[in-house]
Amino acid sequence: MNDQTELPLGEIDGALLADHIGDLDLPTEKWAATLAGLVDHLADFYRRNGRDDDAAVGEAQKVVALLAHDFGGRPIYLPRGDRLQQALIARQIYLLHNGRNVEELAERFGYTVRHVQRVYAEQRSIEIRKRQASLF
Q1: What is the pTM of this model?
Q2: Which of these CATH numbers, 1.10.357, 1.10.150, 1.10.287, 1.10.10, describes 81-131?
Q3: Residue 105 burial class via C-beta count within 10 angstroms: exposed 0-12, middle 13-18, buried 19 and up
Q4: Is residue 10's pLDDT more than 50?
Q5: CA 118 to chain CA centroid, nearest Å
């Protein structure tokens, strides 16, 4: 609310609220619609995967809160299509790599051993940059 007009305390009926609706600080920024869209999409995903409505919305809100905590306030870019698929596979390779399963990962994803090694090195570099400040 702004400082000029305070809503009276106590019960507020619809007519009184309508008179003061312009005074309320409702989110009009684009982020509010984006936030609602994220929750809706995630909740639909969880429903399709067997969660009831309450659990689906609760899980969706938790994921959005986690993303907001970690990435809030900064613009992020998410690729689509083949670039997204390649990036997800690269991250999966990095997370599954144990130092002894390069051939297995190459076979699983249809890559050469050398390609898996390059993907792992690239992902490891990304991980290091996330954790360490640059010296230059």
Answers
A1: 0.65
A2: 1.10.10
A3: buried
A4: no
A5: 27
